[in-house]
Amino acid sequence: MKPDEFWKNFRLGEELAISGNFMYDGLRRFHEMKRLDYDEELFDFLYHVSVGLERLTKIAIVLCEHKATTDQEALEKSLITHNLNDLIARLKTSSPVPVNIVVVFKLSAL
User: On the CB side of 60, how many CA atoms lie within 13 Å of its CA?
Assistant: First the structure.
C-alpha cells in the first residue's frame, strides 16, 4: 500500500470516527437538555456539533483535493483553520458534486 493510500484510508478513517463522536456527543447533549436557557449545556451542544462538522468538512476537502501529485504537507497546513464557512466555501469549489450546506451558528448575547 502506498503512503497516500494508507493516509487516505486509515488516518481519515480515524478522523471520521472522531468527527462522528463529537457530533454524537453534541446531539446526545441536546437530547438530554430540558431547557434551552442553560448556557453551559447549550455551549456544550454547540461546541461538539461545530467541531464535528468542521472535522467532517476537512475530511471531505481532503478527499476532493488530494491527488497523487498534491503536496500533502501544504494541503494539511491549508486546513489549519476553524472558520467553518470558509471551509464549506472551499469544499463547494473543489467538489465534483454540488454541495448545498448552510451552517449558521451565530449566537448574539447569550
Answer: 22
* Amino acid present at 35: R
pLDDT in tens, 68-105: 777 888 888 999 999 988 998 898 888 777 776 655 55
Residue keyed to cell 488530494:
66
**Residue 23: its pLDDT value, please?**
95
Comparing CA positions, the residue from 68, 56, 55 lying closest to residue 7 is: 68
With beta carbons less than 8 A apart as the criterion, state whether 65 and 42 touch. no
Cα→Cα distances 57→4, 19, 41, 76, 79, Å: 19, 10, 24, 13, 10
Q: Kindly give, in sequence order, each residue whose CB lies less than 8 Å from that of residue 102, ignoring residues fewer than 6 positions away.
A: none
| Cell numbers placing 7 | 493516509
CA distance 60 to 104: 19
